[in-house]
Amino acid sequence: MNQNQLVKNLDEIRNTIPTSVRLVAVTKKVDVEVMKWVYEQGIKDFGENKLQEAINKQAQLQDLNDITWHFIGHLQSNKAKKAVESFAWIHSVDSLKIAQRLDFYAQQALNEKVIIKKPQVCLQVKPLPDDNKYGWTTEQLWNDLPLLQELHYLSVRGLMVILPLGLSQEETLSTFKSLKVLQEKIKDKGYFSDNFNQLSMGMSEDYLYAIEAGATMIRLGRVIFNDS
Ligand SMILES: *Cc1c(COP(=O)(O)O)cnc(C)c1O
């Protein structure tokens, strides 16, 4: 990809989003050289969905020590330990089982001072039926909240969603708004010590709707790295 194009893409995006919304640059399959250009433009939040790819890039970019790494992919149980050690944020916690494993390894990593801060996590929800996606249905999530609340080594910060393909603009906006309502309900019930204020939603195709509905973090790949 061409550096001028990247700068132009980023400028255009930043002109359309409020500064209060955290822009996570999704850099899966993007070279570290291109990631350095993104960093030079002042982006410090990088999102990856494959653990090993991310760890390799982290090693190559270790001099850029103020990057915040976000894990956004489906996590297998056997990778929970590495995920906790390598990512400040995990957006894609999608089951009670994986949450409990992350909590277990977070306790270990905190004790051994491998990490100094609790992992910040979002709970991935599936507001509409979608065979291809992981996450809690709203009903399952309400069932599991009391147990999630018991996890003391994760900082549970909010909800994350990936919408199914093919929704109309109205459906997109209304679904994002329903996520905002759900997040506020959970917060109002007093779960997670009042820290439950994040909404990780919005990708290249739908981020403006997500922001309109109250997204606090958007995860953008193609609109940043698009060459045309
Ligand atoms: C790839 C990916 C993104 C970015 O998608 P784009 O359409 O390229 O903006 C966001 N979130 C998740 C979970 C992803 O896997």
UniProtKB/TrEMBL annotation:
Residues 3-225 form the Alanine racemase N-terminal domain. GO terms for molecular function: pyridoxal phosphate binding. InterPro entries: Ala_racemase_N, PLP-binding_barrel, PyrdxlP_homeostasis. It comes from the Bacteria. Its cofactor is pyridoxal 5'-phosphate. It holds the Pfam family Ala_racemase_N. The keyword Ion transport does not apply. Keywords: Pyridoxal phosphate. The modification N6-(pyridoxal phosphate)lysine is found at K28. Belongs to the pyridoxal phosphate-binding protein YggS/PROSC family. Pyridoxal 5'-phosphate (PLP)-binding protein, which is involved in PLP homeostasis. This is Pyridoxal phosphate homeostasis protein.
